[in-house]
From TrEMBL:
Pfam families: NMT1 (PF09084). Residues 110-266 form the SsuA/THI5-like domain. The lineage of its organism: Bacteria, Bacillati, Actinomycetota, Actinomycetes, Pseudonocardiales. This is ABC transporter substrate-binding protein. Keywords: Signal. It comes from Lentzea aerocolonigenes.
Length: 440
């Protein structure tokens, strides 16, 4: 009898320990929460780098613990792309992750076979309504002017990533050899001449261009298809720890509000954590930046995800996916009221189509009315320009003024992100030539 009792006690203990694993714990026990993020994918910073650095999630879990009697141990795991986060989520080793639209859909497709044990997309981190978060760059000395000029050559991309998807869509009938490489490997391959171009997501194109190691060949916004990054959760975790997921989304909202209220400070936080130049982070995440940060699962973004599924199937990245089932906005509704408004909450003021920004050495970024006004201010100030930001005259993509291609149009000087786009509007000017023209 004693032996039976000991065995029953042993099995009861095992069951209790199992219940106290990832996502479930008895009162007073420690609840592990594992977050997968991409520190340098700065369109996810509100669910990753910025959120981690500011400690908003941990602060909210501390308050939650006062109510539940539990303690919560958060582990952050950093990756270069979304693919390994998906693999870890399938293995039950990551509870909440953030990644781009194509990786999100691949995540949902690969876990849908698990049914209720799969994953759900619960929020957006950031988006660009035209697709400007993904770009293709080439070496500064490249003679290529369009993607068609890359025919028969090697292009580096992370297969299955948002940058890869943009490349394949934009290439059309142009055939290239795609080298499946991590972003950092692809950047090195571009500089060494082992590939003719690099197709990647934020912040790699901007980083390489800012460093003078590349020029923009293709602006993803030319596709005019929304691109986004979002938050995904393992459904078992969401069901077992709904209050933890709710606090994560609240913390993500905290980080989003902080970014909107203090964009330069937020950029400095991300820059310090990632070693990315603050000027590059601010290009994407600053006022009127390429990325718009909003948790809302907007109808236009849902539509874009649904339209991406047939494309991903056609190139063999996924089998099938019920997007409506994959997206679960119920947890988000407890945190924030969703909106379909596409206005960037982080604005410079004035007309967003032309509003620009000048950042002089020793000072802070300052808004100017237009690209032409920026050029005139640089001429008149006598100060050294640290960096200028101007919106592409067609796509609206915010870009570095000194790396833009300029065209004189009457009294105005129009900036473009690519030489091909600029050449369609007139004689192409360099930044220095545009400055000279603005001073006349």
């Amino acid at each position: 009898m004693k032996g039976r009792f000991v065995k029953r006690l042993f099995f009861a203990s095992v069951l209790l320990l199992a219940a106290c694993g990832t996502g479930e714990a008895a009162s007073g026990a420690e609840v592990p929460v594992v977050i997968g993020y991409q520190s340098k994918t700065i369109n996810t910073v509100t669910a990753g780098t910025l959120l981690k650095d500011k400690g908003f999630f941990e602060q909210r879990l501390t308050e939650l613990g006062k109510k539940t009697g539990r303690t919560y141990k958060v582990t952050w795991q950093d990756y270069d792309t979304g693919a390994p986060i998906t693999a870890q989520m399938i293995a039950g080793k990551i509870d909440i992750g953030s990644m781009g639209d194509y990786p999100l859909l691949i995540n949902g497709s690969r876990t849908q076979k698990q049914g209720d044990q799969g994953t759900r997309m619960v929020a957006v981190t950031g988006y660009n309504a035209r697709g400007g978060l993904n770009s293709v760059v080439v070496p500064p000395s490249s003679s290529a002017r369009t993607l068609a000029d890359l025919a028969g050559q090697k292009v580096s991309a992370s297969v299955g990533s948002a940058g890869h998807g943009t490349l394949v869509r934009a290439l059309g009938d142009t055939e290239v050899t795609i080298e499946n490489q991590q972003p950092s490997v692809g950047a090195s391959a571009l500089q060494s001449g082992n590939v003719a171009a690099l197709a990647q997501f934020v912040a790699w194109p901007g980083q390489l261009v800012f460093a003078g190691q590349a020029k923009l060949l293709y602006d993803g916004a030319a596709l005019n298809l929304p691109t986004l990054h979002g938050t995904v959760v393992r459904n078992p975790f969401a069901q077992q720890q709904p209050e933890v997921l709710r606090e994560f989304l609240r913390a993500q909202l905290d980080a989003t509000k902080f970014l909107h209220a203090k964009p330069l400070e937020a950029a400095e936080v991300v820059s310090k954590a990632t070693s990315l130049p603050v000027e590059v982070v601010y290009l994407y995440n600053g006022p009127n930046g390429i990325a718009t940060f909003d948790l809302s699962l907007k109808s236009v973004l849902r539509k874009a995800l649904k339209e991406d599924v047939p494309f991903l199937k056609s190139i063999g990245n996924i089998d099938e996916l019920d997007v409506d089932k994959f997206i679960d906005d119920k947890p988000l509704k407890d945190v924030v009221e969703s909106t379909d408004d596409l206005t960037n909450p982080a604005t410079l003021g004035g007309d967003p189509k032309v509003a620009s920004e000048a950042w002089f050495e020793g000072g802070a970024p300052e808004a100017v009315a237009s690209p032409t006004a920026l050029l005139k201010l640089v001429n008149a100030s006598g100060k050294k320009l640290r960096v200028g930001y101007v919106p592409d005259a067609e796509t609206g993509t915010r870009w570095f003024a000194d790396h833009a291609f300029w065209v004189q149009s009457g009294a105005e000087l129009l900036p473009f992100t690519t030489e091909a786009a600029a050449s369609k509007r007139g004689q192409v000017l360099t930044f220095q030539q545009a400055l000279s023209s603005a001073g006349k």
